[in-house]
Amino acid sequence: MAKRTRSETPQKQAMREMMKEYLKNNDVSVKNGADVNAIMRDMMSVILEGSLDEELDEELGYSKYDYANKDTKNSRNGHSSKTMHTSYGDMELAIPRDRNSEYEPQLIKKYQNTVTQDMEEKIISMYAKWSSPCFARSPSVPAPSWAVSA
């Protein structure tokens, strides 16, 4: 009998490879739904925290440690912790702060404590897009810092 092949988008293939590497390198095994939920929570928190850091970069006009391009008296001032409720369970996020308290996060608003299903789907598709090898070969649009592997 002939082996069936999967018809997948490049993004889904990239995510499959990334997850295979993540599971192997971190000695993580998926035995039940709780394990899957834990992985999804971790993935979502990395994406949300990275996006919030990028938002603050935009607000301040310079990226972290890029003091040469700093053209403001305002600067980063650590992070505050926030618990978000998702369909995968609760997760802790580190929300960046600025010294003058002028930064208002747009991705996750103040007093928001729930990630909607629609937002979860967008986060997962964002992760797939930024992890895609097709995207990595495109020099015209730089990947966000959270999507670039060290």
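The above is record 1. Record 2 follows with the same two-line structure.
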Amino acid sequence: MKQNIETWLRLILGAYLIGYALNQFLHVVPTSYGAMPTITRDFIDSIVMYLPFLYVFEMLIGVLLLMNRWTGLILIVLFPLSFSFMMFNMINGDLAMLWPAVLVATLNIVLLLINRERYTPLFE
């Protein structure tokens, strides 16, 4: 049963990451960063040239999760990204756009907890 739950959560997370990143290129579902403070807008404007690389990396992470390749490493790499996306939306005050970041962070944390025995050698 645990294996089925892990598989489904991994597939949902991988598919969501691929879909979200593809949407940034294809604009199937309209998205915006919403109303934000000037300092936040300046930050987004300063990193906008790196966002396509981030979305390609996000698609790569999603594909690796779907293929069940390097899942332990991918979950560790994804954690700071998902946490920072969630914190960015919380600090920005855009709580309506917080749900995608919370979904990714929650799936990531649950998968990390399910696979915690893989990470015990790191903390010995």
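The chain has a mean pLDDT of 90.
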